[in-house]
From TrEMBL, chain A:
GO biological process: maturation of 5.8S rRNA; maturation of LSU-rRNA
Chain segments carrying region Disordered: 1-130, 262-319
Biased composition (Basic residues): 15-33, 43-55
Pfam families the UniProt entry points to: Rrp15p
Record family assignment: Belongs to the RRP15 family.
GO CC term (a single one): preribosome, large subunit precursor
Polar residues bias: start-end ranges: 1-11, 310-319
UniProt name for this protein: RRP15-like protein
UniProtKB/TrEMBL annotation, chain B:
GO cellular component: preribosome, large subunit precursor
Acidic residues composition bias: residue spans: 322-341
Protein name (Swiss-Prot/TrEMBL): Brix domain-containing protein
Record-annotated Brix domain positions: 34-295
The species this protein was found in: Daucus carota subsp. sativus (Carrot)
Record's compositionally biased regions (Basic and acidic residues): 304-321
Amino acid sequence: MAEETQIQESGNVPMKRRLGQKKGGKGKKKMKVYKGSGEKVKVNKKMQKIFRKRARDYNSDDDEEGEDDDDEGDELVPVIRNKKNQRRESEEVDDEKSSDDDDGEDREDKGEEFEVSEDEDGEIQPGITKFTKGSSAFRKAFMKITKKKVADSVLGPVLSAHKKLIAEKLAEEEVERKVKGEVKKEKHIVGEKGHVQLPANFLDTHEKFLIGIATKGVVKLFNAVNKAQSAKKGLNPERAKDAKVIKQKKRAAFFSELGKKPYKSEASSKAEGEGPSWAPLRDNFMLTNSKLKDWDKMHDTTGPEDSGMPTYSSSDDED
Amino acid sequence: MPRFRNKKRVPFVKPVVKKQQQQNVDHITGDRIPRSFVFSRGKLPGSLKQLQADLRKLMLPYTALKLKEKKRNNLKDFLNVAGPMGVTHFLMLSKTATAPYLRVAKTPQGPTLTFKIHEYSLAIDVARSQLRPRCPKDLFANSPLIVLSGFGKEERHLSLITTVFQNIFPAIDINTVKLSSCQRIVLLNYNKDTKLIDFRHFSIRLQPVGVSRRIRKFVQNHQVPDLRDLQDVSDFVTKAGYGSESEADDEAAHVSLPSDLGRVNRSTNKSAVKLQELGPRMSLQLIKIEEGLCSGGVMFSEYENSKGSKTQDTEEEHIGSDEDMEEEHSESEEDEENLNN
């Protein structure tokens, strides 16, 4: 990790300094020193693509390869090629291409890489001489690691000695996730019980039948309203003649109400005399709503005039 | 300086709270307006929460649309609020392992009807299945009409259902009602064979009879019509629109209006009643009726007759266990009320 970060810094350093040059005259000297860096950036653009690609499936080994190439490029080539192929497989970019083509491309890529890394080393060396001296031991250690043959396992190259442990852990996680998912699914199914997502039988015969019933109810109400309101419609209450008519009608309605009243009270008294066996018939049952009091007598006694909606619905029952 | 201080020191006067008279009474007809709470007992899954929201919308305008419930709220809390707010009906949704349940109760003394929800679809499901879901902005400004059919009068538990549901919405006075306020309709249809109640919610639309769709839209929208593919202006009038003619116009759905309704529906013309489903839809089964509010004697039980079979018994126990907790609360509530009386 240390090496890698160092490299990145070193890559950035010339850019930073160049920025500084624009501001002050002091930078001019350094500009001469780093003149080559401008070209290098151009080359880097290509490299940046590759680096970016690598960053996507990040492997800590990647950048060290570049470093080590100077000394023992020949040996490393097969290893890198392996890895490249692995990456290809994972990304599934060039599945259709033949393996020969892949190899060829790999070599070309490698060539570029080496050049660049050499360039980088050459340029950067003044900045990191101290580091390269100190890291010889470090480099050796990495060499050892990179020389190792990488086993072709599902997990890919794992440096840790506890390969089995990791495999077990991954397997465990997988199982746990599966169990969790199943539990969640079950919960969801229980929650959705009875929920019909999309009425597949939308507007089938039953629905049409229901709509028909509802339409009938609406038509009945509207007709009744029409009857009741259109009678009054032509009359202007301010005109004396019309006022008389309205008065008469009101009177008639009132008397018709009165005519019913005794009958109604009889019925209710009857109910009291019988003695309430069924709770809703008791005197104090649902006292808050007087309509509910005689709920089972209502159909027999009341006409359609005195209460609006209830009678409509009950008249639907007859159909 | 002390002068200023003295000015500030105002003796505390208990603010005279003018008790705002709740509009529990319809100002035209003088009838009592029923109000409702829709809430849940226990935790509900998402789809049932949505159903609860849909039911609240259905019960508009005399309901608490944004009623907030907490986990620790029990039935007594709602009951305490219901009194001063003039709430007369509770609709309670609950859920067990077997099925969701809907309880419709009258406050404060009951009765309580418990329904098992066999199937339900949300308003959004219904809207999704439609080509042009309809929602004019004043759709929920007035309470819906209710139509109950197939209940009959013989069986007492069925007629109790009708009375409860008739009184859940304000009664309509034929002499004063404005037809423009009749925008929605709730239908409960009892199926004798399956013993299931179909619960549907429709929007009511009136269309003039014998006017083509194009003309109607033109009059309604006041937009410049698209005449690109027509040879002559007269074609616009003479060419029959497609949609409306394909629908079977039956005479049974035609009404004549007492007054003009909107731009297109004239009192001189006949209008056709068209219903479009709004949702939610439910198929309910009456499980039991209790005398009190989620308590008291059982007046009717679906499983009363067949107590021998175990499966149904266990199902009933499920509901029972849900209500046992509430029974305690409401019982104590009843005691208090008895004392007051």
